[in-house]
C-alpha cells in the first residue's frame, strides 16, 4: 500500500484492496488458531481517538492492536465542547508530543481525519468520519463476502437504507465497484444522496426490485431522528416498505447473505428473525472479520511508516 | 503663477474610461485632488510633478460593491485600515460595506461611523449599505429613510438572505420610495440550511451536506416577481448559477428593475477547488459545477451581469482550520479582484474596456455614486495597471490582515502598479 494513512477507500487500487484482504485472511486463521503475533507492533503506540461513541469499532481496533503487540491507548473526546475544531488540532499537537505511531480516528465531521492527517506525524486510520467514509468497515464487509461467496467480482450487492447519511455505504460502494461487483442502493428518494448513480450504482426505491437476484443484502442503520417526518414519515412506514423481513428477502437469490454493520434497530430496518437466522445472516461473522481486517491494516501501515522513517 | 504642490501630471499612459468610452494614449493632470484635465496632448504646467506611466493603463480607481469590513465587531479578522491597505494594493478606491456586522448597520449613526472610518484611512471611500431589517435578523424593516439620509447607498441583510416573502415585498416597496434598491443574497435559506457545498456528485463523494444549486434560482424567481409587484429595484449579489442568470436575463428583457453582480470565484473556480476538504474554498454561495461557471462567464460578456465585486470576507485561522462543514465560509478578494477579472480578458471572453467597466462605472452607477470615471472635475481616484504583468497569489503574503484567499497559488496576469485616492498616491 503506497499510502501513509488509510483515510478512504475511494482512490485505492483493486490490487491494494486485494492485498489487504489476503493479509486479513491470514489473520483470520491466526486468530482462530489462538496464536498471536505480539512482536509485530511491539514498542509501537496505537491511539484510539474517538470523538464519537462507538464501542464496537473501538474495541475491534483495540483488540487488533493488542494482538499485534502494540501499546493501545483509548482517548474519548467529548464533542460537546464549544469549539470542536480547536479541540481537534490541539489534540493533534498533543499526539505528536506523545510520539504516537498509529492513530485511529472516529469523528462526526466528514474530512476530520484528513485534517488531522495533515497535522500529525502518525499514520491516520479513519474509523468513520461523518457521512464520508468508514474504510475498515468496507474491508471487513468485503472479506466476509469473499469468504462466503468465494469472490467479489460479478456479485450483485444490494445496499439498503439510509445511504444519504451512511459512510458505510460510501466506502462499500467504492470498494465493491472497484472489485467488479454490481452495486445497487435501495431506499426512499429522500435517503439517496444526489447523483448517486455517478458513483456507479443502480438506484432502486422498491425492495422487491432492488433485491431481485441479489447475492448480498447489506442493511444500513437508519437513525430514529430521520424518521420523525424529516426525511421519512414514520418508523412503521419505513419498516413496512424498507425493513428487511423474510418476505422481502425472498426476492434475493436463495443463498443470498444478509449483512448489517451494527448496531441494529431491530424492527425498524431489519426483522429479528432475519438478523438472527444462522444460515442467511453473517452479522456475527462481520464482527470477527473486523478484527482480522484491522490487524492487516495496522500491519501494513506500520510497515509503510517504518520504510518512511 | 506657480502650481500648488499637490499637482501631478501622469503622462505616457493608456487612458481607459469606460464611462465615456475613452481609450487612448495620453496624460492626466491632477490638481487639488481632482482630475483637472486629460487627453492626448497635455501641456506641462509650471511646477507640476511629472509621473511617467511608461505606457501602462490608467483607469478610474475600482469600485467594489460588496465588501465585508471587519468593523464593527470583527476587528480581530480585519479592520477598516487593514482592508484599505488591501484595497489600495488591488487598485480599489471605493468600497460598499455590508451591514451584517456586530452590531448591524441599522442605525444612522453607524452609517456615519463607517463613512468616517473610511475617510480616516485616506485610501478608500466607504459607501455603507444599510441593514434591510433590524439587526439583519430578517424580521422588522430597518429605518430606510433615516439610514438613506445618513448616507446608506442601498439596503441588504448582507450574507443573510431575506427569506420571508412578505418582508422582502415590504422592503422592495418601501425602499423604492427613497430611490434605493434592495440587495439580496439569493439563496433560499431553508434549502441552504446546514449545507456546506453545492449538492451533487462531489458533495456525495465527500460526504458533505449539499445545497441544491436551484436554491439560488428559487429566490431569484421569487424576488423578480416581487420587484414586478412592487415596482421596487432588486439587486442580486454574487450570482453563481446559469439558471438564476437566465431568469435575470429574461426579467431584464421584460423591463423589470433588476440588476446583479458576481464575484471572481464564480467565474474563475468551480467546486473541484475544494479538493481534499480545503476550507479556503468554502464560500457562500458555494462554488458550483463547471457548467455554472461557464454560464457566469457568458453572462459577463452578454451584459446580464452588471458588475463584478470582490465579495471580500475576511476570516481568521480559527474560522477556517476546522472540519469543512464547521468552517466559516467566505474568502478575501480585494487584492485579487482585478487580476482574476483580467484572466477573462486574456482568455478572450471580455474586452479590457468591458472588464474595467464591470469594476468601475457600472457598480458606481448601481450604488448611485459618481465615482468610477475619469470625468474632469471628479476626485482623482485612479488605478495604474499593467494588464500583462505576471504574479502569483500567495496566501500569507497578501496585503491586509486576512489571508483566506481561495486563489492561493493562482498565477495571474495583470497587476496594479499604482493607486491614487483623491490625488494622493496610496499604492505603488
This entry's quaternary arrangement is heterodimer
Give the C-alpha Rg of chain A.
Answer: 19 Å
Principal-axes geometry of chain B comes out as globular
Average pLDDT score of chain A: 92
Describe the 3D structure.
The complex is a heterodimer of chains A (about 300) and B (about 425). Helices cover about 40% and strands about 15% of the residues of chain A. Chain A is built from 11 helices and 9 strands. In chain A, strands 7-6-5-8-9 form a 5-stranded parallel β-sheet. A 4-stranded parallel β-sheet of chain A has the order 2-1-3-4, sandwiched between helices. In chain A, strand 1 (about 45-50), helix 2 (about 55-65) and strand 2 (about 70-75) form a beta-alpha-beta unit. By secondary structure, chain B is of the alpha/beta class. Chain B has one domain (about 60-365): Metal-dependent hydrolases (TIM Barrel, Alpha-Beta Barrel), CATH 3.20.20.140. In chain B, about 30% of the residues lie in helices and about 25% in strands. Chain B has 14 helices and 19 strands. In chain B, helix 2 (about 110-120) runs parallel beside helix 3 (about 145-150), helix 4 (about 165-175) packs across helix 7 (about 215-230) and helix 7 packs parallel to helix 8 (about 240-255). The radius of gyration of chain B is 21 Å and the shape is globular. Classes of the chains: A alpha/beta (about 300), B alpha/beta (about 425). At the A-B interface, helix 3 and helix 4 of A face helix 6 of B.
Provide a brief overview of the structure.
Helices cover 42% and strands 15% of the residues of chain A. In chain A, helix 6 links the parallel strand 5 and strand 6.
Annotation keywords:
heterodimer; A: 309 residues; alpha/beta; five-stranded parallel beta sheet; four-stranded parallel beta sheet; 11 helices; globular; B: 428 residues; TIM Barrel; eight-stranded mixed beta sheet; six-stranded parallel beta sheet
Amino acid at each position: 500500500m503506497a499510502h501513509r494513512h488509510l483515510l478512504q477507500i475511494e482512490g485505492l487500487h483493486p490490487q491494494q484492496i486485494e492485498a489487504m484482504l489476503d493479509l486479513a485472511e491470514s489473520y483470520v486463521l491466526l486468530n482462530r488458531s489462538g496464536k498471536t503475533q505480539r512482536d509485530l507492533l511491539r514498542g509501537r503506540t496505537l491511539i484510539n481517538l474517538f470523538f464519537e461513541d462507538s464501542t464496537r469499532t473501538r474495541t475491534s481496533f483495540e483488540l487488533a492492536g493488542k494482538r499485534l503487540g502494540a501499546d493501545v491507548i483509548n482517548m474519548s473526546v467529548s464533542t460537546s465542547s464549544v469549539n470542536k475544531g480547536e479541540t481537534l488540532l490541539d489534540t493533534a499537537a498533543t499526539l505528536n508530543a506523545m510520539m504516537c505511531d498509529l492513530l485511529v480516528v472516529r469523528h462526526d465531521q466528514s474530512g476530520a481525519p484528513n485534517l488531522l492527517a495533515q497535522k500529525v506525524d502518525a499514520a491516520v486510520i479513519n474509523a468513520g468520519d461523518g457521512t464520508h467514509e468508514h474504510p475498515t468497515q468496507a474491508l471487513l464487509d468485503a472479506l466476509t463476502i469473499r469468504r462466503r461467496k468465494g469472490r467479489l467480482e460479478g456479485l450483485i450487492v444490494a445496499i439498503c437504507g439510509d445511504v444519504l447519511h451512511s459512510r458505510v455505504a460510501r466506502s462499500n460502494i467504492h470498494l465493491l465497484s472497484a472489485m467488479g461487483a454490481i452495486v445497487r442502493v435501495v431506499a426512499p428518494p429522500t435517503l439517496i444522496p444526489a447523483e448517486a448513480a455517478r458513483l456507479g450504482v443502480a438506484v432502486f426505491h422498491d425492495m422487491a426490485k432492488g433485491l431481485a437476484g441479489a447475492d448480498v443484502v447489506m442493511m444500513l442503520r437508519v437513525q430514529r431522528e430521520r424518521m420523525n417526518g424529516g426525511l421519512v414519515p414514520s418508523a412503521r412506514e419505513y419498516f413496512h416498505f424498507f425493513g428487511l423481513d423474510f418476505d422481502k428477502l425472498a426476492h434475493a437469490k436463495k443463498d443470498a447473505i444478509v449483512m448489517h454493520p451494527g448496531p441494529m434497530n431491530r424492527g425498524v430496518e431489519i426483522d429479528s428473525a432475519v438478523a438472527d437466522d444462522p444460515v442467511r445472516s453473517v452479522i456475527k461473522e462481520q464482527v470477527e472479520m473486523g478484527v482480522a481486517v484491522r490487524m492487516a491494516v495496522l500491519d501494513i501501515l506500520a510497515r509503510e511508516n517504518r520504510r518512511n522513517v | 503663477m506657480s502650481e500648488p504642490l499637490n499637482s501631478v501630471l501622469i503622462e505616457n499612459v493608456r487612458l481607459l474610461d469606460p464611462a465615456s468610452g475613452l481609450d487612448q494614449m495620453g496624460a492626466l493632470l491632477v490638481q487639488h485632488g481632482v482630475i483637472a484635465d486629460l487627453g492626448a496632448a497635455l501641456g506641462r504646467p509650471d511646477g507640476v510633478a511629472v509621473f511617467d506611466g511608461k505606457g501602462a493603463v490608467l483607469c478610474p480607481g475600482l469600485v467594489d460593491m460588496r465588501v465585508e469590513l471587519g468593523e464593527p465587531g470583527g476587528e480581530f479578522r480585519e479592520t477598516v485600515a487593514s482592508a484599505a491597505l488591501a484595497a489600495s494594493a488591488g487598485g480599489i478606491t471605493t468600497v460598499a460595506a455590508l451591514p451584517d456586522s456586530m452590531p448591524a448597520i441599522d442605525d444612522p449613526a453607524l452609517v456615519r461611523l463607517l463613512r468616517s472610518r473610511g475617510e480616516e484611512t485616506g485610501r478608500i471611500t466607504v459607501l455603507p449599505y444599510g441593514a434591510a431589517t433590524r439587526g439583519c435578523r430578517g424580521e422588522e424593516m430597518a429605518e430606510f429613510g433615516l439610514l438613506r439620509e445618513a448616507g446608506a447607498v442601498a439596503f441588504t441583510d448582507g450574507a443573510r438572505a431575506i427569506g420571508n416573502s412578505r418582508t422582502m415585498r415590504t422592503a422592495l416597496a418601501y425602499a423604492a420610495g427613497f430611490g434605493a434598491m434592495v440587495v439580496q443574497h439569493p439563496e433560499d435559506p431553508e434549502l441552504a440550511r446546514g449545507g456546506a457545498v453545492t449538492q451533487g456528485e462531489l458533495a456525495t463523494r465527500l460526504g458533505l451536506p449539499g445545497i441544491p444549486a436551484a436554491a439560488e434560482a428559487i429566490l431569484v424567481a421569487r424576488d423578480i416577481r416581487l420587484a414586478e409587484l412592487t415596482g421596487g429595484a432588486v439587486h442580486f449579489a454574487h450570482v453563481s448559477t446559469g439558471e438564476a442568470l437566465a431568469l435575470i436575463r429574461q426579467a431584464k428583457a421584460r423591463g423589470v428593475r433588476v440588476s446583479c453582480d458576481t464575484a471572481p470565484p464564480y467565474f474563475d473556480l468551480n467546486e473541484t477547488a475544494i479538493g481534499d476538504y480545503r476550507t479556503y474554498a468554502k464560500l457562500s454561495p458555494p462554488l458550483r459545477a463547471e457548467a455554472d461557471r461557464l454560464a457566469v462567464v457568458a453572462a459577463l460578456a452578454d451584459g446580464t451581469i452588471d458588475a463584478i465585486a470582490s465579495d471580500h470576507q475576511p476570516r481568521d485561522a480559527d474560522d477556517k482550520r476546522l472540519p469543512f462543514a464547521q468552517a466559516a465560509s467566505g474568502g478575501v478578494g480585494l487584492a485579487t479582484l482585478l487580476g482574476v477579472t483580467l484572466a477573462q480578458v486574456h482568455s478572450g471572453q471580455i474586452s479590457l474596456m468591458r472588464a474595467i467597466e464591470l469594476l468601475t462605472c457600472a457598480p458606481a452607477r448601481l450604488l448611485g455614486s459618481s465615482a468610477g470615471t475619469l470625468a474632469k472635475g471628479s476626485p482623482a481616484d485612479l488605478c495604474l495597471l499593467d494588464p500583462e504583468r505576471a504574479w502569483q497569489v500567495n496566501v500569507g503574503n497578501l496585503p491586509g490582515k486576512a489571508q483566506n484567499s481561495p486563489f492561493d497559488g493562482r498565477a495571474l496576469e495583470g497587476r496594479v502598479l499604482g493607486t491614487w485616492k483623491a490625488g494622493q498616491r496610496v499604492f505603488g
